[in-house]
Amino acid sequence: MHVVRAAVLPAVGAPLELAEIDLPEPGPGQVRVRLAAAGVCHSDLSLSDGTMRVPVPAVLGHEGAGFVVSVGEGVTHLAPGDEVVLNWAPSCGNCHACTLGEVWLCANALSGAGDVYARRASDGSDLHPGLNVAAFAEETVVAAGCVLPVPDGVPLIDAALLGCAVLTGYGAVHHSARVQQGETVAVFGVGGVGLSALQAARIAGASKIVAVDVSPAKESLAREAGATDYVVASDTTAREIRALTGKQGVDVAVECVGRAVTIRTAWESTRRGGRTTVVGIGGKDQQVTFNALEIFHWGRTLSGCVFGNSDPARDLPVLAEHVRAGRLDLGMLVTERIDLEGIPGAFENMVAGKGGRALVVF
After folding, report:
1. For residues 118 and 331, what is the distance between their CA atoms, to the nearest angstrom?
2. pLDDT tens-digit profile of 236-283?
3. How far is the C-alpha of 164 from the C-alpha of 87, rounded, in Å?
4. From 315's CA, which of 42, 87, 170, 175 has a CA 20 to 30 Å away?
5. Cβ-based burial of 76 (10 A; exposed 0-12, middle 13-18, buried ≥19)
6. Predicted structure pTM score
């Protein structure tokens, strides 16, 4: 056993606790990773408040990068010292979705989240690994399928953002919405995923990119990411977006918030025949309603989007090429660098709609 510090969620709805945990040596097919950085994602907040289910007590954190400390029996493609990105949703390769090539819908991707992977040092109580990888800790032990090599030319700390925010935002634009050059795009929510989606829309060659957020303070950040226009969310948001597009509406809306009112507004902001991709994770109480006539009349498409419909093994090299070419700026997503003690404050900022991505730097 090896003792490291971690941010532990003792129960759903309870505050995170900084604690020492006992990590075992990696077993067969496992890898021990020393974290360099971990992003604080809205999904972590959704897990902590019960919007999404997670076995507890748990160490959350699913967006991270670090280097291999040691490997277990049977792991031959990794070695101590290798720089790696954590992959919280490894595909099994055997389920129905995987056989269709839709690895982002793998039925077994989160099977490891219910395992006991470590114990509290103080009392030996069991701990679960959040979304498989438990990145809110100095070190973690994960299945070998949960790690991918950091692509050449991507700094290790920045690489943490590739594990969720960038794959999700980029994938939502390129794989789900399939934005084409010259199309118009609206992105709802200017957090880490939204900023990634804005950059992805710019990379795709969108002619007009409208960023929407409740905070006027995020306009400069959104424009830096590629927004050509900025709308402060209100009851007239859809009307304002249509006014910016010759009263037609945008070709594509990407919703990164997960609220019923935002999903509905995103849908209404698209043109007749437009496409809306919903990335944000909302609760069961968030009911979105449509009448049958408007669905027929507008001919719009509303699609869910899991993990940006991404395949990390396929997409990380593509993202790295954009980074090396200067088209994708990972650093600009980060508006706050913190330590483990700063994670509760990062949660509070997310609830208040402040900033982009908070990054835990070890």
Report:
1. 32
2. 999 999 999 999 999 999 999 999 999 999 999 999 999 999 999 988
3. 8
4. 42
5. exposed
6. 0.95
